[in-house]
Specification:
single chain; mainly alpha; two-stranded antiparallel sheet; 2 strands; globular
Length: about 650
């Protein structure tokens, strides 16, 4: 962001101009490895479009008329992924950007032949029951190709982690102590990763080849119909009339965007382009405005119905319908946004801010009249999931609905050009996630082969002395550390494989244990020193990534406690049928996160003294954790500070001769 793009408000704070789509795209590429595409033109651009559209057509056809046998469906899906990876992502900074290099052609030949080998040879292998030398050779080639595809499209960190697991599988017998294993031959490892359903072609790639791809494509279609503008206008109508409405618009917009886009950086880029200038223009500091967008964008990954890609994998790991995951995430997601909303409201009150003038806000009736029909596809998906249809079925008919309702008005109507653009965009967006799911298959395969998950789970429990709170804290640390270098999907899968079993062993509800791992895999986007969502927001505003990262971390602290609440209180995940208990837990948790936000901001009606801040903090913790006694004490402490603050405000408001 250059100096020419920055103005100053009356307090001499920098105010960012409206950010163009081109600038936002550059920021997205810098913060998100999955967006660093080659920029083709001419014949090559048309070829990429044909390949991407063919990939989308394949997945649409198989979702609507029946998928192939699992291994073959995943084989074709992986073939498209590696094809687009080696065409779209350059191998180095010096590689040509307008065409593939000779090295790319070699990688293409090797990766396509090895990934499609399963499609043509799996039936013969099933009859034989044993691997021949050709199977082992092709498996070795595919493992190497996927590692290179991961380096290009996701980053070297996940590639290195995968190599470490592969080395552990081969040389782990020489490791002394509990981490050592009996040892496995190279042939056995390749067999596990290439020919079994517990390796590359396992659950994670299976989910990518069905649910994840279709929901990404669904989001691409909604984007082309103008859903982004509808969300922006609706957010302004709902939140703009309140104090600090400029910042609250970001929360509402990100929450709504998160219903169709489970990407933290994607949400930041989509909403930050208009909300950051809106906030800075109103008087919020650019660092704070950027942090608000980062925290709100990250929340989109936990907002149903379309959450992050890992949520679909969670459903497969647990063996439950995705609707159960979606419903379980609803209350915690709202709690997350309530916590951020409270922080922003208190900040706005401290600054003496006013609502957005009514004449600048489009009436909600007009917004709904012009584009409200775009909500129909989301309603269709939620309804189909709730009546027990598969996510694949729901996503397919959600896409059909999005195409159909687009013709209701001229402004939202899909043309052939926008239709093809949505098909191409969906395929492009799926590459990074899909490759991550494939390479994580190496990690899952080695973990299952060596029994590493059980060993680490037992040792985590032993290290924690059987304490749930210490085990959850250690799990959180693992997620945060892994999240520094891994995408959310890979971070969740590794944590769910290693740490979640330890929580389950201590008696934690399995859904709560996996949701805990998923939450912190998402929140790792906000934890310095590597806070990807904050880096993306900082790029949009031209601020220091470090400053935005730490500010975002402070704003999101109340949200960091939410996963601990459903570990101790699974009622928040709608587990069980005691609706009174669920309602009570929800209400106390809502009050608790608001009280915690007030404590972190050190303000309610007037600045808090040390005793008030401590009382609000302890009271919030008591309310968040379940129990009649803790709830009663928490309500008493929070209410006491609340009325104390009101009394102080009243005394300040009195004339000087009466105060």
């Amino acid at each position: 962001m250059t100096d020419q793009n920055v103005k100053r408000n009356e307090n001499q704070e920098p105010v960012v101009d409206i950010i163009s789509e081109e600038e936002a795209e550059k920021v997205l590429e810098k913060a998100d490895a999955e967006s660093r595409f080659r920029k083709y033109s001419g014949t090559w651009a048309k070829a990429i479009t044909v390949i991407a559209v063919a990939m989308s057509l394949f997945h649409l056809y198989t979702s609507g008329f029946g998928t192939l046998m699992a291994m073959k469906q995943r084989s074709v899906h992986l073939a498209f992924l590696v094809l687009l990876t080696f065409l779209l992502y350059p191998g180095s900074k010096r590689a040509p950007r307008e065409r593939p290099s000779v090295v790319d052609y070699i990688w293409l030949a090797l990766s396509l032949s090895s990934s499609l080998y399963i499609l043509f040879a799996f039936d013969a292998f099933s009859v034989r029951g044993t691997a021949n030398p050709t199977d082992i050779f092709m498996g070795t080639v595919l493992i190497v190709c996927i590692l290179e595809a991961t380096r290009r499209s996701v980053g070297k960190e996940l590639m290195i982690l995968s190599i470490i697991f592969l080395a552990y599988g081969y040389w782990g017998e020489y490791i002394p102590g509990v981490l050592g294993h009996t040892g496995f031959t190279f042939r056995r490892i390749v067999y596990q990763l290439f020919l079994s359903s517990e390796g590359i072609f396992g659950i994670s790639l299976g989910v990518s080849s069905t649910y994840i791809f279709l929901f990404i494509l669904f989001g691409a279609f909604l984007t082309e119909t103008g859903m982004g503008r509808f969300i922006k206008d609706l957010a302004m109508s709902l939140a703009g009339k309140t104090i600090g409405g400029e910042a609250k618009v970001s929360i509402v917009a990100s929450g709504l965007m998160g219903m169709i886009n489970g990407s933290a950086v994607g949400n930041v880029a989509a909403t930050g382009t208009f909300t950051i200038p809106l906030m800075t223009g109103a008087g919020f500091k650019p660092v704070f405005a950027s942090a608000v967008v980062a925290v709100a964008g990250t929340g989109g990954m936990i907002m149903p119905p379309v959450m992050g890609a890992a949520s679909f994998i969670m459903a497969e790991f647990l063996g439950v319908h995705y609707a159960k995951i979606m419903l379980a995430a609803a209350i915690p997601a709202v709690l997350y946004y309530v916590a951020e909303y409270a922080v922003i409201h208190i900040e706005a009150v401290k600054m003496g801010m006013k609502p957005i003038p009514r004449e600048e806000i489009i009436p909600i009736r007009k917004v709904m009249r012009e584009r409200g029909h775009l909500m129909v596809p989301i309603i269709v998906i939620v309804y189909l999931l709730l009546i027990g249809r598969t996510p694949l079925y729901a996503a397919f008919y959600g896409i059909i609905a999005s195409v159909g309702v687009s013709f209701i008005t001229k402004e939202t109507r899909l043309t052939w050009k926008s239709f093809l653009k949505a098909m191409e965009s969906g395929a492009r967006q799926s590459v990074g996630v899909g490759i991550a799911c494939a390479v994580v298959g190496n990690i899952i395969g080695i973990t299952n082969l060596t029994g590493l998950g059980l060993v680490l789970g037992d040792n985590i429990v032993s290290l924690a002395g059987g304490s749930i709170i210490i085990t959850t804290f250690l799990t959180m640390i693992v997620c945060v550390i892994l999240g520094m270098g891994l995408p959310t999907t890979a971070c969740y899968i590794v944590t769910a494989t290693i740490a979640a079993p330890a929580l389950v062993k201590l008696g934690v509800n399995p859904l709560a244990a996996h949701m805990f791992a998923y939450y912190f895999a998402c929140l790792s986007n906000l934890t310095p020193p590597v806070a990807i969502a904050s880096y993306g927001a900082a790029g949009l505003s031209g601020q220091s990534p470090s400053a935005v990262g730490w500010t975002g971390f402070r704003i999101s602290l109340a949200g960091f406690l939410i996963p601990f609440t459903f570990i101790y209180n699974p009622d928040l995940l709608l587990v069980g049928g005691n609706y009174l208990s669920i309602a009570l837990s929800t209400v106390t948790s809502f009050v608790g996160v608001i009280a915690l936000a007030a404590s972190l901001q050190n303000y309610m009606y007037v600045p808090m003294n040390v005793l008030q801040r401590l009382g609000m903090f302890v009271g919030s913790l008591l309310l968040i954790f379940p129990g009649a006694v803790t709830d009663a004490l928490g309500v008493a402490m929070v209410a006491g500070v609340f009325f104390w603050q009101r009394a102080q405000k009243a005394s300040v408001s009195l004339p000087s001769y009466l105060s």
